[in-house]
Design brief:
The chain has about 325 residues and is an alpha/beta fold. It is built from eleven helices and 14 strands.
Length: about 325
């Protein structure tokens, strides 16, 4: 409980989905938190990143700002997703090094894992076994490069950077805008609207067969902060649930919780993305001594409740 006490922590993306939960936990633990807003600091610009660090004077940096979204965003903005995430990460780690930051924590993504590796469960060592799936190549590569930058900086400068790989997050404050939402938020919105309209069926993209880990956002925040405190290795670290679910199982669970009794129609003309993407949590269990505490059904109940209470806010998220 004392690790973050009076520590100056810069949280990029601290006003966003994951970042806001991280900020709450940091404040509970007595940290001095600095959250840069894009209107004041464009972190894709090196000079503005330097000004941000001069103002924040951080001891720890937790980098979870990102420009990304669901499949629709990858269709619309692949170049912007790649460029902004690449240069933002590169600038931040370099400025952090020059500023004497004690530890740099980057929030990675399971989109960085090889997209065509025929394995049921992916360990951290598999990260380097191939390119990400084409549906998330832009974001996955940009984040993977950040892990390589951390390795290079540790080797040359003994800079303490860690790369924590998170999976499909969901929960309160997620984006429900149809062009930005990921699968959980997108399905919640679809089922809520279908039930209101009295529809007898809804369409879900893909076959429903892909398997994924689904990580409740508050568990993600807790796990990332635990890794900040306990983990200090160049190798990436998976932080997620043990085991996964198919998109079909996810859709059926959301339908049950919302009370939608119509048919679920799977549109197989739309992309599935990577078919198998379940991450190994052996290293996480060993080094953190922890597992996420929120079951999928419990997390979905909380997310649906938040959506009901904050619907206007949930739908207001803009893409750019």
């Amino acid at each position: 409980m004392d690790f973050f006490q009076r520590k100056r922590v810069l949280v990029t993306g601290g006003a966003g989905f994951l970042g806001s939960h991280i900020v709450e936990r940091l404040k509970e633990r007595g940290a001095e938190v600095f959250v840069p807003r894009r209107a004041e600091y464009d972190l894709t610009d090196r000079m503005q990143a330097e000004r941000c660090f001069a103002d924040a004077k951080p001891q720890i940096v937790i980098h979870c700002a990102a420009f990304y979204g669901g499949m629709r965003m990858h269709e619309l903005y692949p170049a912007k997703i790649y460029y902004e995430n690449l240069v933002m990460g590169a600038h931040l780690m370099e400025v952090a090094r020059l500023s004497g930051v004690e530890k740099f924590v980057s929030a990675g993504t399971d989109c960085s894992y090889p997209g065509y590796l025929d394995k049921e469960v992916l360990s951290e060592d598999d990260l380097w076994m191939g390119l990400p799936h084409e549906t998330a190549l832009d974001y996955g590569i940009a984040k993977k490069i950040l892990a390589i930058q951390g390795w290079a900086y540790r080797k040359q400068y003994d800079f303490h950077a860690i790369h924590v790989i998170l999976t499909n997050m969901y929960g309160p404050r997620d984006a429900f805008h149809p062009d930005k939402s990921h699968v959980v938020a997108a399905l919640i919105r679809k089922f809520v609207e279908a039930k209101r309209a009295g529809k007898d069926s809804i369409e879900v993209w893909g076959s429903g067969k892909p398997t994924r880990n689904f990580l409740y956002v508050d568990d993600a925040a807790f796990g990332l902060l635990l890794a900040t405190e306990k983990y200090d290795d160049v190798a990436p670290l998976n932080v997620t649930t043990d085991g996964g679910f198919t998109v079909r199982e996810l859709a059926e669970t959301i339908a049950k919780l919302i009370g939608f009794t119509g048919r679920i129609v799977y549109n197989t003309s739309r992309p599935d993305g990577q078919m198998k993407k379940i991450l190994d949590v052996s290293r996480m269990k060993q080094v953190l001594g922890w597992m996420p505490q929120t079951s999928l059904e419990e997390g979905l109940r909380k997310t649906i409740r938040w959506h009901e209470e904050h619907e206007t806010e949930a739908y207001a998220a803009t893409i750019i």
